[in-house]
Amino acid sequence: MRKAVVDGNRATGRGPARYHARPGTRRSIMAKLYFYYSAMNAGKTTTLLQSAYNYHERGMRTVILTPTLDTRHGEGVVASRIGLKASARRFAGDENLLALVEADIAEHGTLNCVFVDEAQFLTRAQVWQLSDVVDRLHIPVLAYGLRTDFRGELFEGSGYLLAWADELQEIKTICHSGSKATMVVRVDGQGRAVTDGPQVEIGGNDRYVSVSRAEFKKITEGQGHL
Fold this sequence. Notes:
Number of strands: 12
Distance between the termini: 37 Å
Largest sheet: 7 strands, parallel
Shape: elongated
Number of helices: 5
CATH class: Alpha Beta
CATH topology: Rossmann fold
CATH architecture: 3-Layer(aba) Sandwich
Order of helices and strands: EEHEEEEHEHEHEEEEH
Number of domains: 1
Radius of gyration: 18 Å
CATH superfamily: P-loop containing nucleotide triphosphate hydrolases
Mean pLDDT: 83
Helix content: 25-40%
Strand content: 15-25%
Low-confidence stretches: 1-14, 17-28
């Protein structure tokens, strides 16, 4: 499995946009399941939107999927911190994503790529269904999400994407210490680390901060605050 690194400070939009996947064509064998992972504020959504734009610029049709529980930017909207945004198809935790994609194709015709924002919230079954989109329908799937939660534990969706994706690509961001940020801290109103609570609690910069592993240890052990 090839592993690459993408700089989260540049919205390159690099991805498999050259793949015009259609069932029954020779190029269909090129479809893959990609997982772009990082800590928070690395530019995942910016990269997703740039990649989708690259497809549209070439006359190709895409669909962006986003979980129903993330309504920070309104329902059915994917937006980046730098102001880019696009309409998206919302999905619930019990929804069959293979069936969703098949229904989209039946209604709108050829689909060239599927994008998934906040992919850490996928279930095990949904990651498997996305692999079916690749393997049965020969359509590339690009999933973007966090790797771990505020406790340093894998999200369900991220764990299975790490296990089953064809390509893993890390989007880098920086800790306040200057090291690469690989983990996420949940903080309270005073900037102290929160170490208990539900895994999923939607929030932005006021609730979550990306840090290095070394800083994560210090902060969660009460040796400082953010």
